[in-house]
Design goal:
Distance between the termini: 55 Å
Strand content: under 5%
Low-confidence stretches: none
Helix content: 55-70%
Mean pLDDT: 86
Shape: globular
Radius of gyration: 16 Å
Number of helices: 7
Structural class: mainly alpha
Number of strands: 0
């Protein structure tokens, strides 16, 4: 992995972490790694292992390809409608998505009554 790729991944991690409102310390705790190791990854000074990238992607609810390349694959396996929904969802932070999920659950509950 070259320095440009490492900086791109680091930027993706930082932006996604901030979108969820997590601090670097909270992320390092969530990932069960030292704060200094995590900050080196996020600042592009440390090349993370594949296992570490998978953990980070999972914690940030992002696909590994999007974390590494900054976009979804060219030939996704989802229908065009599902792709559009995923792009829409990707614009919002975790708290907003939880509020939407709760609202949808209430609507569905009312429809079933």
């Amino acid at each position: 992995m070259n320095k440009k790729d490492l900086k791109q991944i680091a930027q993706q991690i930082k932006e996604k972490r901030k979108s969820y409102g997590y601090t670097q310390e909270q992320m390092s705790e969530k990932l069960e790694m030292s704060y200094s190791y995590y900050t080196k990854i996020e600042n592009g000074y440390q090349t993370p292992s594949l296992n570490t990238l998978v953990k980070i992607a999972s914690a940030l609810h992002i696909s590994l390809d999007k974390l590494i390349y900054g976009k979804t694959p060219e030939n996704p396996q989802f229908s065009p409608d599902a792709q559009e929904l995923l792009q829409f969802i990707d614009q919002y932070d975790r708290n907003e998505l939880i509020r939407c999920k709760n609202l949808l659950a209430k609507i569905i509950s009312c429809l079933n009554d």
